[in-house]
Amino acid sequence: MTINDVQNNIIEEFSLFDDWMDKYNLLIDLGKELPVIDPKFKIKDFLIEGCQSKVWLHPVYDGKLITFSADSDAIITRGIVALLIKVLSNRTPDEIISSDLYFIDKIGLRQNLSPTRSNGLLSMVRQMKLYAMAFNAKKK
């Protein structure tokens, strides 16, 4: 499945709900499904700057694909990072770098988050792309 296929599935899943409270509940459920990050990665080195909540993001690069694990101390934020992992994990650095994450606006996520959560979302995306750029630079 391509990044766009996954994004289209997310858009379809969120379009089943008209009310944003139902969409928040879906985000919360996604956060609950996020695999638990190894506690040894819940350290400052993996903490994302710019998030009001604490968000830890750990990348693993096997030379081909980047896999992310994450956690947050806030339930909605945990759901947001779960969505990003669903789209960007198990991808090549080039795929992550060049991805256009249109699902964020299509499902109304950015518009329905508080300004601080919206900034956190952008910080998460930026950090995932920075990891991809760093791994891409290492392989050259």
Q: How would you sum up this structure, described in words?
A:
- This protein is mostly helical.
- The protein has one domain (about 5-140): Sufe protein. Chain: A (Alpha-Beta Complex).
- It has helices at about 5-15, 20-35, 75-90, 95-100, 105, 115-140, and strands at about 55-60, 65-70.
- The protein has a two-stranded antiparallel ribbon with strand order 1-2.
- Strand 1 and strand 2 form a beta hairpin.
Sequence-ordered SSE layout with sheet pairings:
Elements: H1 3-15, H2 20-33, E1 55-61, E2 66-72, H3 75-88, H4 93-98, H5 103-106, H6 115-138
Helix pairs in contact: 1-3, 2-3, 3-6
Summary keywords:
mainly alpha; 140 residues; two-stranded antiparallel sheet; single chain; Sufe protein. Chain: A; 6 helices
Helical residue percent? 40-55%
Using the alpha-carbon principal axes, give the shape: globular
Count of separate DSSP helical elements: 6
Any idea of the CATH topology?
Answer: Sufe protein. Chain: A
- Please tell me how large the radius of gyration is: 14 Å
Residues in β-strands, percent? 5-15%
Got a strand count? 2
- The CATH architecture category equals Alpha-Beta Complex
Identify the quaternary structure here: single chain
Low-pLDDT parts are none
- Helix-and-strand structural type: mainly alpha
Quote the distance from N terminus to C terminus.
26 Å
Spatial order of strands in the largest sheet? 1-2
Averaging pLDDT over every residue, what do you get? 94
Number of domains: 1
H-E order: HHEEHHHH
CATH class term = Alpha Beta
The main β sheet shows up as: 2 strands, antiparallel
